[in-house]
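Fold it.
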Amino acid sequence: MKVLTDANVGEIVKVKKNEAQDSLKERLLALGLTAGANIEVLRRGPKNNLTVFRIRGAMIALRKEESRLIEIM
């Protein structure tokens, strides 16, 4: 299973499944992290804890623990 934290900078991936629970799942869905959505990895933070993604035209930063919950193709 490949997750969003495995994607490299510059890569464009597609969301397969959102494994988050409760309010975090709702937040990620509201940000556009739905099945089939394309995500571009733009850059990583200083300690690789934060990563900036382009999702449906918006730039969004997610922590590593949040990105681990998104399964990609």
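The first helix runs from residue 22 to 30.
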